[in-house]
Amino acid sequence: MLNLRLHHVSIVVRDLDRSLAFYRDILGLQPLPRPDFPVRGAWLSCGDRQVHLVVHDGQTFRDSDSVDNNDGHFALNTDDFDAVVSVLAASGFSEHAADGDPRRLLVKRTGAAGFAQLYVLDPDRNIVEVNAAPS
C-alpha cells in the first residue's frame, strides 16, 4: 500500500502582495524559502504542511463572489475557532454580509460535520474553510 500524505495546497492568485496580506497577515501563515521559479509566488507554512501561492494572470473557472461550502475548497484546522472568527471580523469579514459579498463569512458553529466550520473567500475568490475538527 502507498504511504501518501498531503504536502501542500497550491492556490492560483493574481496579485501576490494582496494574497500574502490575506494568508500571512490575516490567517497568520509564515513565509518559507521558495526556489527561484520562472513564475512569481510564495510558499507559506501551515503547521507541518504548506500553502503555495502561484501567480497566474489567466482565467480560472471560478467567477462567483458567493461563499459556497459545497464548491471546491481546502480546509485549515484550528484549536481556537472563535479567535479565527474574531480575526476575520476585525479584518472586515462579516457573518451578516449579504450573499454575493466577497467579504461574507459563512459560519457553521454546529452542523452535520460534528464540529464548527467557517468558509471565507480569499482575494482571488478561492474558498478557504477553517474548522475545529478534532485532531
Describe the structure.
The chain starts with 7 loop residues before the first strand and ends with a strand. A hairpin with a 5-residue loop joins strand 7 (117-121) and strand 8. The model has no long low-confidence stretch (mean pLDDT 88). The longest helix has 11 residues, at 16-26. With 135 residues, it is of the alpha/beta class. The strands form two sheets. It has a four-stranded mixed β-sheet, covered by helices on one side. The protein has two helices and eight strands; from the N terminus they run βαββββαβββ.
In short:
The chain is built from two helices and eight strands, in the order βαββββαβββ.
Structural descriptors:
four-stranded mixed beta sheet; 135 residues; 2 helices
Spatial gap, N to C terminus: 23 Å
What's the β-strand tally? 8
Q: If strands are numbered along the chain, what order do they take across the biggest sheet? A: 1-4-3-2
Principal-axes geometry comes out as globular
In this structure, how is the largest beta sheet organized? Answer: 4 strands, mixed
Which consecutive residue ranges, at least 5 long each, have pLDDT under 50?
none
Strand content: 25-35%
Percentage of residues assigned to helices: 10-25%
Oligomer type: single chain
Order of helices and strands: EHEEEEHEEE
Helix count, per DSSP? 2
Q: Report mean pLDDT, rounded to a whole number.
A: 88
SS-based class: alpha/beta
Using only C-alpha atoms, the radius of gyration works out to 15 Å
